[in-house]
Design goal:
By secondary structure, this protein is α+β, with helices and mostly antiparallel strands. The chain is 67% helix and 6% strand. It has helices at 2-17, 46-51, 73-84, 103-118, 122-140, 149-163, 165-177, 181-190, 194-202, 223-242, 245-308, 310-313, 315-324, 331-351, 355-371, 375-385, 387-405, 431-455, and strands at residues 24-29, 33-38, 57-61, 64-68, 206-208, 211-213.
Length: 461
Amino acid sequence: MAKKNKYEDLSNRVIGLVGEKENITFFTHCVTRLRLTVKDKSLVNVKEIEKIEGVIGCQWVGDQFQIIIGQAVSDVYKLICQKTGLAQEDTVSDDVKKESFSLKKGLSDIFTNIAACIVPLLPIMIGVGMIKVIILVGQSLGWISMDSPTSIVINFVADAGFYFFPVFIGATASRKFGANIAISMLLGAMLIHPTFISMVAQGTPMSVFGLTIKAGNYANAVFPSILAIYVLSKLEKVLNKYTPEILRSICVPLFSILIMIPITFCFIAPLGANIGVVLSAIINFIYVNFGGFGVAVFACLQPIMVLTGMHVAMVPYGLQSFQTYGFLPNVIGTLINNFNQGAASLAVALKTKDKSLKSTAISAATTAIIAGVSEPAMYGINLRLKKPFYLILAGNFIGALVGGLLKVYVYIMGAGTNGLFAFPAYLEGGASNVLYAILACVVGFVATFLLVYFSYKEEIN
């Protein structure tokens, strides 16, 4: 009952403190945070929101305002949607306060937009990733046969979670950019149509309206769909403006599709795919040339990436890396960070005499270590106390350096970072790969715990 009342109070107050429903242009949530884009930032009362029971912290990431709730975020989100009707809004208002352009703001907007398109799809990625882990463990232990009907069905369902990513992105990107959701999903679907895939595989030349279509494999792709839906959102506004109202319901969908077919196949899809390939190649170049040191640097930066929202923008790299190489060398750094956030919180819990802080720290540590959800520990304890956060960077570097030097890879997308349940995702690389992953996490955990434990001093108010 206490939790219900807490969420009721939070859901009742938070919308008013961000300037009411009319000030919100986009509203979603991820695993631990409410994410809002608003017209006027000055209407957001950050200090009052942070005082609400159940709110761990708040932050601005570009133009997106994030309220850290923890694992109860979906309950809070549903309550807010029920009371305000925000979930029923499919379009985004254009009446947004204009700001001068800067490179920093431009990059921030790119990451914010990518995150807004990907965050709603995290449950799919986590869910099918864990299904793959269960199947892999079952097959390794002899409990599940690879040829059994159930194994075959579950396997292709799990594969579908990533194969049809362009379609899923079509739906989420349409909400972010204000495009028609049906047309947006169609643009994603045409990139993975069996005929197109077959012609690409056979090397059959393709063209549309006299324009050459560059062959490419866009299954699992993220950037092509996001770019295509962004362009579609602009095209639809032009078509709606110049099409007579009586013909709009027919002409706008028709010309949207006809115009976007050559634009998407001939220009956007190859460009989007190249962005993914280049990003993947850069990160892989760092790994190949700097080995364990490159993985260590990545792990050291992981908390900062989470803080800025850039960690979500790395998902396209992950998908591209799996498609190109079949594994990810840097995911061990994310797993180590999750454990280390828990290690730092646990050290604080053991040293502090504040009962409230001790309780919160133990809860946050448990969530990070077991479930791999690090935000409560990071925002609620480590970042708030500052020094533990800085020491985690050192612990991440130490642990990931071990994992990088031992060439620890993860072979299942979406399942290599989920706390204690992540280790089976490393099984495909052999028993040594799992043991090295455990060793790297233990080294990072112990280093972080000791650093925080012996440096933490209770503040005297």
